[in-house]
Amino acid sequence: MMRRRTTLLTSCTALALALGATACGGGPVSAGGGDKALSGQTVTVAGVWSGSEQKNFQKVLDAFTAKTGAKTQFVSTGDNVSTVVGSKIEGGNAPDVVMVPQVGVLDQFAEKGWLKPLSPTARQTISADYAPVWKKYGSVDGTLYGLYFKAAHKSTVWYGPDALAQAGVKPPKTYDEMLKAGHTVSDSGLAAFAVAGQDGWTLTDWFENIYLSQAGPQKYDALAAHKLKWTDPSVVKALTTLGKLFKDKQLIAGGRQEALNTDFPSSVEKVFGPKPEAGMVYEGDFVAGVAHDQFGRTIGKDADFFPFPAVDGGTAPVVSGGDAAVVLKDGKNATAGMKLLEYLASPEAAAVWAKAGGFLSPNKKLDPASYGDDVSRAIAKSLVGAGDSVRFDMSDQAPAAFGGTKGAGEWKLLQDFLRDPSDPKGTAAQLESAAAKAYQG
């Protein structure tokens, strides 16, 4: 994502970035206090990040090294964090810290007895500086194991300002207005939406936003925990609402079959590439990074977003995801690993990546000026401002067999629904059958 250089950082934030050491208005944070107390030690960190994300996280790790003297080593796991970390533990080569991208995986790690509870310092910081919902998603059976360092805002709809301007429409406030605006965009010569149906996870995100707004947070929580069956009328209603979009040939670029052959980067290209085919694409804040890095779009000028709109009179949804830092018991340097986690909990650590771009923090104490552009600040404000109404990505809370496996479970069944959206009730029954097996397992 493009970042304008921020010239008006507060002196405190600028000093913290320059020194990588002292918290604003007080003494040093507990990660070593800048006295190189961890010199000679190495902290190994495992996570899914690669490319620009890994490069930017390395800047955070380098700031930790400058602060404490501890060296760091990052190991990219690929998408299957659970398998890779499990094999490293079995081989006696466990990392000290793991950045866990799914609530379900954090639960799994805790149940296996792999995790150290967070230190009193980390717990105190999280209680003070984060909305309680982030503490909830980092805890298992009342014990706090995970710090959500990097978050995603999955309730953003991205659009080409020229496409909407030429169609004479403004960003909508309701779901029905969004579909109506989509028809107007379509009438002007572009399809309304690019849909990345080849990647099943994008379809789960569509469903979750509709369901959270339409059914409300209590039912969302119950469905996420499988305390509510997928055959519940609220699920059928949400699928019916999503099916209205899927059925409408005017609204989806290339129709349903082309959507099933479109992956996430290609969906962004259909809106922000050299030959736009659609006016809008729904996905998280990370759309901006692809639009800028791959297609040279200036965020806020020729690529912008509006919040996912409210459905059927409900509250506009704020669905999030995130990467939680956890400390493994079997790591060779778990004590220094916990010091890294305490540092990651600080606004100074978040500011390093916020300045680099492609990052959102749920930390309420992070100065918004740390973000490099107005769009990022607006997204961060929406995420932090939602407080406890934020809900974590439902599929990420589910067992991987249901909510996180290509060609299986929810991903496949929603792809099947995109292919043929004529039977929401039948799809709900199939989802319940798959969920029951996965949650029982």
In short:
Helix content is 48%, strand content 12%. The protein is of the alpha/beta class. The chain has two domains: 11-153 and 320-391, Periplasmic binding protein-like II (D-Maltodextrin-Binding Protein, domain 2); 156-317 and 400-440, D-Maltodextrin-Binding Protein, domain 2 (3-Layer(aba) Sandwich), CATH 3.40.190.10.
Note down, in words, how this protein is organized.
By secondary structure, the protein is α/β, with parallel strands linked by helices. It folds into 2 domains: 215 residues, 3-Layer(aba) Sandwich (D-Maltodextrin-Binding Protein, domain 2), CATH 3.40.190; 203 residues, Periplasmic binding protein-like II (D-Maltodextrin-Binding Protein, domain 2), CATH 3.40.190. 48% of the residues lie in helices and 12% in strands. The strands form 3 sheets. Strands 1, 2, 3, 6, 11 and 12 form a 6-stranded mixed beta sheet that branches. A 4-stranded mixed beta sheet has the order 8-9-7-10. The chain starts with 10 loop residues before the first helix and ends with a helix. Pfam families: SBP_bac_1 (PF01547). Belongs to the bacterial solute-binding protein 1 family. This is Sugar ABC transporter substrate-binding protein.
